[in-house]
Records
---
Amino acid sequence: MTILVADDDKVHVHLLTTLLKKRGFSVSVAHDGLAAWTTALRSGPDAIILDIHMPAGTGFEVLRRLKTSTKTFQIPVIVVSGSVATEDVARIEELGADHFLRKPADVDQLLAVIGRVLNTGPMLNAVA
Amino acid sequence: MSANESCLVGAVASRHPVEDPRVLTTMPTISAAEARAVADCSGPLDRVAALLRTEGDVELLAEMARIFLCDSPRLVSNVRSAVSRAVPLEIEHAAHELKGCVGNFAAHDAFNAAANLEMLGHLGQMAGVREAAERLEAELERLEPAMRGLTTARV
């Protein structure tokens, strides 16, 4: 299974990528909104972890496109954002995000959410 | 290859290929209890919390610190530029980016300083922005040695 991590925070991307790969996921990465949208469209990941504040197209715009395109609307999107604006959370929900976690997200919680949206059960343990 | 990509490559160059399950057993990891034993919660970052985020993987935390040290000058420059231009949205975004980055290390003081600057930008309250930016830079200066320590830390 492939997960697209769309975030311009390189430290966070490296953390998530490493932990997801430990659990057997393939991971693709996008560091801005445009790359996130085109990667999702081209490769059709099984789930997307999306930051809201990114250059070249905000996460809001990416989320809107993902959830209105017939090619991508079924892909679960987990929004991870450290936004201080309460209106942002409402907008994330309106646009159809499957889950929202405040950044910095608890890793166990994030992995549990991924397991839930992919119907693979909890992803709390690395592949041994 | 961009400077940032070079940083990332450098940070991961010595890393084991974690996709290979045989390697996982040899990776330098510590338990949560061990992490608590090396805690220094009075410092500029909470190593216990940071290590828990990496599931006790010291090497992963070191790589993250290397990436931070490579990327932070750009992030600080963005903050300075935004503050000197006095554009609230730019200040909000630049501070937000730094906040997210230090948040990965449970660097609470730097995180709070960045969050404060971000909020001032969000609210468009330019009074106090310079002081908030100075406080953020001071916290980042305090954080840097701890970050460098993470890049060489062994448990």
---
Amino acid sequence: MKNVIAIIISVALIVGIGFAEHYYIDKIFGDFEAEIDGFMISLDEGTLTESDIVASEENWAKIKELLHIIIPHNDIKPFNESFSELKVSLRQGDFDHAEVELQVLHDLIISIPQTYQFKIENIF
Amino acid sequence: MVTVFFRTLIIFGTVLIIIRLMGKRQIGEMQPFELVVTLIMADVACTPMQEVSIPLIYGLTALLCVFILHSIITILNKKSLGLRKVFSGKPSIIINKDGIDFNEMKKQDLTISDLLEALRSQQVFSVEDVQYAILETNGNLSILTKDETDKNPTLPVTIVSGGKIDKQGLETIVQDKEFVEKILRREKVMSVKTVLLMTIDNDGNLFYQEKNKKYVTKKINFQGGDSW
């Protein structure tokens, strides 16, 4: 009986944490994608400023504290680098490079959640 | 450094709890699947301890999965003799009344040197002194020396284990299910499910114990197969 209870609790924990992880990552990166899409439109319109990116980076700093619990730290590092390069590009008026960095961020946002989805290619 | 220290504390605590839940056997003689579990646990526990870029939850989840697998296999082992053989193997009689069973040794990939070494480690220095040697599923060699056999000349064979009839045991004594049922009827045992263990040797010495009852030994009129 002790074994059965332990199995049920363990399976419930794994399934529960799995669903929470899936929901949390989808939600975080979904919101983040919308924000980056907004930046791309602002960049096209020429209204994107360094302060917009700083605000977004501050928000990201809060989010990543929790993300570190479920995502390998090395996967989070490229976001920090892209934010830094984006800020400098906007400060220097290098909008072409800023566009590249926004695209890099966008691709990261799309690819990272896919890595954590329950798919055959992710299992093997 | 502090991070590694705390990660080690958490992993150590988790492994300790899991080992405790797995029972005492895990720290003594291990069955094959228990060895696999222990080997995997050692690796799974070490990686997140040292690799700080991997979230601790990955290691904890893997440990939990290993624990679930161990618990499921333990339950299946209790429920089914067939599955117990799949997961843990079955004991092999390496030395019987006729001497060393070469075919059984070949099956177990055991050399004569291995056998002699195992005998010596049990203070037996001559094969001649051995009545029976059984290679247990945990890799230990159990030996019945000829001195001890004065009292109990043949090896008792398990015919009921954990409430289930052991078909292989019945084959060894050249009997069928009806033989066990006849004993149960005669002994007024309601069902085979209530029998924890029933063994019989070639001289008809019957031993059985029902759940939550005292064991019973008696001699029955039995001339079974004399091959074991």
